[in-house]
Write a structure and sequence with these properties.
Elements (H helix, E strand, L loop, with lengths): L4 H4 L7 H13 L6 H6 L3 E2 H5 L6 H13 L3 E6 L2 E6 L1 H34 L1
Antiparallel strand pairs: 1-3, 2-3
Helix pairs in contact: 2-5
């Protein structure tokens, strides 16, 4: 599977507002099971996936739009019903990218730690 450019290159620093929007809505919906967890069980209508969170429809729509733009969620329109599906392959790509970044930064921090120990010993 080819990695999409936004995952291969990492987060776009010019688009960090999307991350902040995602974070703010995630914090708002933290009271119950996150609707993304509900989608993990299978496709669901927008109403079923987001019911009971006490978040405004515009806030949910904005958040779902961000997830659709990143490919994490897809939407199928069946008449007036909008069905959301979680794209597990995309999430796997994200998890793999994060694992690679964790390894790179872990090695970098090991080098910094060794340097600081050497400098402290002088």
């Amino acid at each position: 599977m080819a990695v999409t450019p936004h995952l291969r290159d990492g987060p776009d620093p010019n688009n960090m507002s999307r991350v902040q929007e995602d974070t703010s809505v995630s914090q708002t919906t933290a009271r119950g099971a996150d609707y993304r967890e509900r989608l993990g069980a299978g496709p669901a209508t927008v109403g079923d996936a987001t019911a009971g969170f006490g978040v405004s429809k515009p806030a949910i729509a904005k958040h779902v739009k961000v997830l659709e733009e990143t490919g994490v969620v897809t939407r199928a329109v069946e008449g007036r019903t909008h069905v959301l599906s979680l794209e597990l392959d995309v999430l796997r790509e994200v998890a793999e990218w994060m694992d690679r970044q964790r390894a790179v930064w872990g090695r970098f921090m090991d080098v910094v730690d060794e340097y600081l120990k050497e400098e402290g010993a002088k």
